[in-house]
DNA sequence: ATGAAAGCGCTAACAG
DNA sequence: CTGTTAGCGCTTTCAT
């Protein structure tokens, strides 16, 4: 907790190097159009004084902040139950760092915070935003749209409003789900059940759609709603066992609910994978590797999703700056998933 | 990805309200010393124009940013394996939000990033920093000390340098470890083993010390080094079983390694808790509740740690601002832990 | 290629 | 109590 010392200004550097402020500014910003000897002198002065530009002063004139906001809505939900969030952030951080941008984190706890976030975004404190809106009825996307901040969404947002220009990055939830179910089918299973995720999130809906793509005329009783939690998985599994004692496979919407299902199956005396094969989704290591038996699941590259979101946003900002119509506005990306085979299926 | 519109300035609000910029500024910043009718007029103008202060301009003169940096060193390690990080952040975020401060997240990937972080911190972009330095030999604390930014550390930093004024928030790792071991002893166990964490982190060292506090003259073979991972836990457990087949309890430095140990015990045909009782540390829900049997462990209030760090820092900043000697500089805090009893011990 | 000068939007003395 | 004024540190025309 030490106090902070006064820092040297451009003026000071200029004086020391015997040039004008303008010249120092040029050098600091890349040094184009300044003759080598001067560049050298200025660099030296900067070094000696330990000069660091004052970002506030710079932003005031450039109207750029080299900062982007990461908005995470309602963390209580999924975000804090798994490393998802952290990995995503890591990817984002890496990309932003590579482009000298700062990451301003905005966590919201329920509706009360939306106004705050809206105000902040509208306040022009950041150049853009990366938004994770988990729930279908989330008003945040609208809010942000109105704030007029360039934005990339994490996960396909469910949006009743104008979709033009909405950019998002998502995993191929539907395709991944199809792969999971096909894998099960390939194992010779025919009574394949599905434990859904919380259906107010697009990822859960998409995974359910993927399941249906393969199980076109599945017994509707084979589908039970879960909520992405282990407890939900247990509940759903019990329900399934009661409804369809003859099931021979389960595709759970995520690893956490698969873990719950596994526990119930064991209690019920069903052997996995012999009697019932189980596939999860996410490949959340601490869970998938720890279950008994270890979990076959669908992996998504979370970190890459984060990186991509940042890349897309930054690219969009450059384009904005250049005011070019060419190079087209960035468009949404859906990342592939892969099946990771372990012991459960 | 929409473009951002030009925003109204203080000037514009002043014009609309028919007052001077200074008056508007006063109103915007609390409105002390401005007569009610004027306050009202200005508020209305602000509302109508949708005015939001330009933070850059404000910072330029006040030299405050109302932003603090959260520095997380080397995320690959522990941070991304569990919800620790996310919870900590949530606590920090809540506290900062309550005081209208922004959270700037700085993630570092190895040494190369240290210079960048040092530069940023020294650059006076934030009013203070919250730093998580996990490893004993981390040069980051030194760097930050030099940058002269008010800082609070998460977890006791191992610091060879000047300790004066170093403020940190930590869990009572040592006390928690003692509780864990005493609990085991209370169960009548006498051959209590310890799987340590990565001993380049103070938390691991402190937990080991706690174990030793109780097992004053323990068989040294009962202590095996782990690394906080499930794989490390497995390895350590195998080693322990080979060395001391007669052990009747294990205290693992965290839940993840306890999970690994549990698996090895099961493979070895040892019943838990009948043959061997097991206690973990952290109470990391997705793990502790999922193990077979569920894990008895030491809980730390992670979110509260985060909140407290932020509170301490902000308090220190206020004090700095007030330049008061009274109210003493904030000092470190060690939070209590609690034993959570489940099935494993 | 370099320098001089004019602000960016805001706060903080200082007058009145 | 309210308005006037002088910058905060930087970038950016515009001259030279």
Question: What are the defining features of this structure?
Answer:
homodimer, Rossmann fold, 12 strands, DNA-binding
Count of folded domains of chain A: 3
Number of strands of chain A: 12
For this structure, what is the CATH homologous superfamily of the largest domain in chain A? Response regulator
> Which CATH class of the largest domain in chain A is shown?
Alpha Beta
Number of helices of chain A: 13
Placed side by side, the strands forming the largest sheet of chain A appear as 2-1-3-4-5-11
The name of the CATH architecture of the largest domain in chain A is 3-Layer(aba) Sandwich
Beta-strand share of residues of chain A: 5-15%
What is the average per-residue confidence, as pLDDT of chain A, rounded to a whole number?
A: 89
Oligomer class: homodimer
Radius of gyration of chain A, CA atoms, in whole angstroms? 26 Å
For the sheet with most strands of chain A, the description reads: 6 strands, parallel
Level of helix content of chain A?
A: 40-55%
- Distance between the amino and carboxyl termini of chain A: 55 Å
Structural class of chain A: alpha/beta
* Low-pLDDT runs of chain A: none
Biggest interchain interface, per-side counts: A-B, 70 and 70 residues
Protein architecture, described:
Chains A, B: Residues 8-62 form the HTH lacI-type domain. Two copies of one chain form a homodimer. With 345 residues, chain A is α/β, with parallel strands linked by helices. The first copy, chain A, has three domains: 10-49, no CATH class; 63-170 and 304-334, 3-Layer(aba) Sandwich (Rossmann fold); 173-301, Rossmann fold (3-Layer(aba) Sandwich), CATH 3.40.50. Chain A has 13 helices and twelve strands. Chain A has helices at 10-17, 21-28, 36-49, 55-62, 84-98, 112-122, 140-147, 173-186, 202-214, 230-243, 255-267, 285-288, 302-322; strands at residues 67-73, 102-108, 128-132, 151-154, 167-171, 192-195, 223-224, 249-252, 277-279, 297-299, 333-335, 338-340. In chain A, the strands form three sheets. In chain A, strands 2-1-3-4-5-11 form a six-stranded parallel beta sheet, with helices on both faces. A four-stranded parallel beta sheet of chain A has the order 7-6-8-9, with helices on both faces. In chain A, helix 9 links the parallel strand 6 and strand 7 (223-224). The model of chain A has no long low-confidence stretch (mean pLDDT 89). Strand 2 (102-108) of chain A pairs antiparallel with strand 2 of chain B, so a sheet runs across the interface. The first copy, chain A, binds a DNA duplex (16 and 16 nucleotides) through helix 2 and helix 4.
